[in-house]
């Protein structure tokens, strides 16, 4: 890593160290991550910065996956499964997904909130900022992972997705997973975990233990799944014990990814 010399570089380095220290304080992290990509000290950039996005230009496989993802999104928009919900969603923007469409690690959350509905990007509100810190603590940058939700539209009053709503949107999430074909999925929170693992167990029982996602159909993709608490839950129940549990779950995911 180059030693920062100019005022700009020193300011960048200070910011990166401060972000890392905040992350460590949040999660009780007991190490300093080593960034595997890019030069110098990595920073947590705003998630939608197009210049920071992982490039499809030099990678035909990524370009192909992006094309499949765009087609899938267009199909979702035509099908509009949310129009069949018993309680309609008055959303502003569809929140489809964010990140590298060929990522080795995929996070799956529940449904967009107000900030996500306004921007069309998943996990950009308070819970999203904590998720960003979790990703940083894993030694990754947000644009290196893929992030999606069970529902693509904001439920009224941020209600938890009903099983019927989750089922209507599930085919599109299954296809998102098939396109990204990650090595590890981290589900955050109960709706995503239950849908992905076809389980009715509690989060307390499911988190922290490896499980397997099996995609639909005879050739359905198989992916290792690590369920963990939702960052919004962590913000509500901000105890040392919960932070330790989440960090332990993420460490298992990191170990699996090598
Ligand atoms: N919570 C989620 O589950 N998903 C988001 O995109 C934002 C908050």
Walk me through this protein's architecture:
This protein is an alpha/beta fold and 258 residues long. The protein has one domain (46-257): Uracil-DNA glycosylase-like domain (Uracil-DNA Glycosylase, subunit E), CATH 3.40.470. Helix content is 44%, strand content 11%. It has 9 helices and 6 strands, in the order H-H-E-E-H-H-E-H-E-H-H-E-E-H-H. The protein has helices at 7-27, 60-79, 114-119, 126-137, 163-180, 190-197, 203-206, 231-236, 240-257; strands spanning 97-99, 105-109, 146-149, 184-188, 211-214, 222-228. The protein has a 6-stranded mixed β-sheet with strand order 1-3-2-4-6-5, with helices on both faces. It starts with 6 loop residues before the first helix and ends with a helix. The model is unreliable at 35-48 (pLDDT under 50). Bound molecules: uracil.
